[in-house]
Amino acid sequence: MTYCAAIRLKDGMVFASDTRTNAGVDHISTFRKLYQYGIEGERVMVLQTAGSLATSQAVFTKLQHDIDQRYESNLNTVLTLFDAAQMVGECMRNVMNHAKTVANDDNGSQFTSSFMLGGQIKGQPPELYMIYPEGNCIRATKDTPFFQLGESKYGKPILDRSVTYDTDIQHAARALMLSFDSTIHSNLSVGMPIDFVIYKSDSLETPEGRRIDENDEYFNTIRRQWSKALRNILVELPEYPDNYWNK
Amino acid sequence: MTYCAAIRLKDGMVFASDTRTNAGVDHISTFRKLYQYGIEGERVMVLQTAGSLATSQAVFTKLQHDIDQRYESNLNTVLTLFDAAQMVGECMRNVMNHAKTVANDDNGSQFTSSFMLGGQIKGQPPELYMIYPEGNCIRATKDTPFFQLGESKYGKPILDRSVTYDTDIQHAARALMLSFDSTIHSNLSVGMPIDFVIYKSDSLETPEGRRIDENDEYFNTIRRQWSKALRNILVELPEYPDNYWNK
């Protein structure tokens, strides 16, 4: 499994992907599932994935190949981020259809991937897309500023409670770290390290990023403080009134 | 969908079940999914369910019918709680098999239910069982003191963090309320009111219970305080150090 999430805020974007892949509990490996594309000062794109690692890697490889070979249409030449999302979707459909043909398997659900693409092209607003296994996509809005892929449920409550479009980047980044902490705590199939990337709106600079591993001092500090504070709040909440039960 | 959970603690047990059922988003109804059985001073049982409402109701009905008709073997005559869990499992398998026969449908996944049974019989320790759709069951232990059914993921992190076998009943009950609050916040298919029941070990009294609805003053107080405190902690966590990113 995988957990990845991305948030589009007023002042920028925060992206995070774990790196655990597993096929059963015996085959556990570490693979990067977050990639960056772009041209400094002109366009920035961050692509995240969940699902079949073979499909996802083939898509990353094909997209990079098209850039390297300077094909007319690639992520560095598309006019809008929407076009880029469409390109990713089509590329994924091609990979999945090819895999099904090779496997001679009409079912082929094991080849399914999903993607999220966020970024900005000069002169246009920053955007974040969720690209479905069917190849189509939706865009994050002010009402719905974040998307998640994969093992998303454990980490959703904290984002639901604390992140809106107007949330400060620093706070949203911390909420996202704790969203990963909750998920890792409750689910074995999501694991460290986590690839974290922060993009500031209109900077058009390759975003800042960090691979957070088990020894990351800051991450461990806030996860400990968070965990302790949660337990403290719970203990300090008011006791239920007499005769509260039996009604 | 449904969310229900039960915790077996050193000093007692806490049970909670929501009451929303849905078939699609158009058919939303309120149904009790938590029932009590027992004989004051001799045995106490709390039965919770998730899954096909038709199967669950048929099981509740059959179990009550066997008690009312004073059949030799019923929940009021079984010797152990393990026997009671087996009885529930067998009853559920019979109902599911019958439904499949009537429907002439070998697939029959739509008839599946799961149950949790907790309680105590005089002279024996309190026990909590999870009864799988296959009819077999597992028992909660000191290492794993709680079980969940249905839409369990949103509400699991808070239980993972705050509940152990030695947790005070009052604290565990509050954690369970907040676990429901998180789930309802993040998922439309789980809804109020919530049936809550608390049993004190060795009391052998019909447990105290309360149906918590949207207007419950205490529940609303702690959910507001919790939500506010969470946001405060998040804001008060230390900022990340300079140069934390770009590594």
UniProtKB/TrEMBL annotation, chains A, B:
Its domain of life?
A: Bacteria
GO MF term list: peptidase activity
Which Pfam families does this entry report, sorted A to Z? Proteasome (PF00227)
| GO terms of biological process kind | proteolysis involved in protein catabolic process
- One GO location term (cellular component): proteasome core complex
- What Gene3D superfamilies does the database record attribute to this sequence? Glutamine Phosphoribosylpyrophosphate, subunit 1, domain 1
Keywords, A to Z, come to: Hydrolase, Protease, Proteasome
Q: Cite the source lineage.
A: Bacteria, Pseudomonadati, Pseudomonadota, Gammaproteobacteria, Moraxellales
Q: Which InterPro entries match?
A: Ntn_hydrolases_N (IPR029055), Proteasome_sua/b (IPR001353), UCP009120_prtse (IPR016545)
- Put simply, this protein is called Putative proteasome-type protease
What SUPFAM superfamilies does the record point to? N-terminal nucleophile aminohydrolases (Ntn hydrolases)
